[in-house]
Amino acid sequence: MTTLTGHLDVALRLAESGVPVLPLREGKGPMGNCRACRENTCGGRPNMKTPGPCACPAPCHAWAAATTDPHVLTSAAWAPAWRQAAAVAYHPGGTALAVVDLDNADAVAWARQSLPETRTVATTRGEHWIYRGSMVSRNGVRPGVDIKSAMAYARWLGPGTGTMALLPDAVRALVVKGPAPARPTPVTSAVAPLLGEQMCPHRSPAYLERGIAMAEQRITDATSAVHNTVYRTFLAVLRVHGRCGCLTDGHVARLFTAAQAKGEGLRHCETAWTNARTQLGM
Description:
By secondary structure, the protein is of the alpha+beta class. 33% of the residues lie in helices and 13% in strands. A hairpin with a 2-residue loop joins strand 6 and strand 7.
């Protein structure tokens, strides 16, 4: 085991509570990829062959390296990163959270007028507003505002203050650019029953797991019209689980992986997911 530094101590405490963490270098950036992982061959953008976690023993690929495994965090492969770490980051989507990163006083003022109150964490120039629920991440959704959730990382600056609220539609809507797209083809009767129409039993992991597995299989079994199948499957998943807070970044990553295995690009997956949310008014 490596000698524990202050940053590693923080990371281990977070990991014990189920928060995936990683070290950040000076300047708040992630550690660079190792030689074996150059060109993002195992989990990073732009190739995104697998949406993480990175299989490399070193902390490569930013958010994809985030882990809750204490053996990985204290391994010899991670020791050099901790010795040069300037901060600790976490993967919000990996623990079903979304961070609204408000980068200046104007952005904070906008959030106080426009968004529901939730847990807040002071940053160097503004605040992080943290909500329960994961979503697509996007920078620059409005002046001074970034969304950090799925496939992103946020700097750990302490637990913050206030009660954490459920992710509101007002935040989800920030990643939808321009006017709402034309209504896609409605879900057919063959797809609508995919996960059932009843409300999700929030604390029934077996029900959720079965639904995600069925969705993955639906995409995998597609022999034609893959584009439409991916969209309709995303729509079916969101219809049942999209408002209850049960979906995590891991579930979304599984669906994206299944779609990418059928030849769909990451950009299409993100667009299909966003369009499905828009169709459902989420």
